Amino acid sequence: MAETAANSAPAKTSARPPGSRRRWWTLAVLSGAQLMVALDMTIVSIALPAAQADVHLSDTSKGWVVTAYTLAFGGLLMLGGRLGDMVGRRRAVLLGAAGFAAVSVLGGAASNAAVLIAARALQGVFAALLTPSTLALLTSVFPEGRERAKALGLYGAALMSGGAVGLVLGGALTDSLTWRWTFYVNVPIALVVVLAGARLFPDPPRPARVPLDIVGAILGCAGIVGCIYAFGEAGARGWGSPVIIGSLAAGLVLLAVFGVVQSRVAHPLLPPRVLADRNRAGAFLTIVISTFAMLGMFLFMTFQFQDVMGYSSLRAGLSFLPYVVVAAVISTRVTGRIMPHVRPRVLLVSGLLVEASGLFLLTRLTPDSGYTASVLPALLLFGIGVGLLVAPIMSTATTVSDPADTGIASAFVNTSQQIGGSIGTALLNSVAASASAAYLAAHAHASDNWATVHGMTVACGWAAAVLVAGAVVVAFLVTADPPVTPADTGASS
Fold this sequence. Notes:
Blueprint lengths: L1 H12 L6 H20 L8 H7 L4 H29 L1 H20 L4 H29 L4 H31 L4 H4 L1 H15 L13 H24 L4 H21 L9 H5 L1 H31 L4 H6 L2 H18 L5 H19 L8 H28 L7 H37 L5 H30 L8 H7 L1
Helix pairs in contact: 2-6, 2-7, 2-9, 4-5, 4-6, 4-10, 4-18, 5-6, 5-9, 6-18, 7-15, 7-17, 10-11, 10-18, 13-16, 13-17, 13-18, 13-19, 15-17, 16-17, 16-19, 18-19
């Protein structure tokens, strides 16, 4: 304990001195690493039609190009977080980035479907090693208070805007070069992370070495994979499919057994205390709910832009830019400044309600709606909501009493995001499909576009209702005080 205190004390006393510039460069590199991982959730998706003919992808295997990444990433995040604690977070980020670059080259050079899908799965593996340690490393670099709030805002902007950036970049690269550059673009980003990170990243003291919970890792990873697969494939196979029912049931049973095992072993993969804290639980719930709605919004707006409004893939991607810009500005210029002075729940509840208002606007869409009058205001509101949420989510979720839990808490931030996104995509897609079918049945002469848009508006209404309900729960669950340090209080006075 004395050694830990001795190591952490200098960080708090050097708030604005010589090492300040180095910390901000470190943040830039860590944010770049996170952006690389986040944009790969969508960048390849928009290039799939072009890749299908080149590598002979069937309709089934085309879906697996996306699913392989999601399953490997989501399923291995908790294990990746614990491995980062064991081998050192600096080493985990560098190894993860280098591995991500190598398998991206493999994917870009793929000549058949099997190699392409394998490369995507390996991208997920290295992303699961890299991602938890980037957030854990950031919290060790920035002292709690104003600087950490601002840093978390910038980092969160990279995390939350990654999907939209992937759509823009994927469309641009596919239209101007080839689909293979949606893989190759990761290489220069990863090289910057490795080369700059080797010079900039600190090597925080590692917790006392403990045995890896192998049984917990197998149960937890398999359970998450089962659930993510079921939700991800439900839209294509249908909720009544034996494969979906079996995968979901198996995943839930495995997670239940995982929970029992974690409460009984000496060194659990996911210590129950990480989830037992009401503030962290509220932060994780906020991530699930917000990502549930955000991924649904991305899915529906992509359909609206391309299938209904006739936009090209590049123009569709660029249409999301206002959301990205607003989210980044709010999280860095607004939330970062007020976060040390208000309780986290104020920002969390406000962010969820503003997101809900954006989705309520989308319930008024028709096939004749224009971008500026109907879509843009909703995107701006959603960007404001995300900008208010990100920094307090990260801060609350990763504030742990035991430094040994930082990596796994950071991993669960991303695990929550994966779970929320998978559930949102599956459930909201099912709601939209059912509403569209009911609309066609009731309006025999209606066009497909009217039915499609009606389905999307109904699903947006349900997503908005989930956000409002979540805001009520979070308001009662999160009771933490503002993350203000004595140094900050003195500085502000």
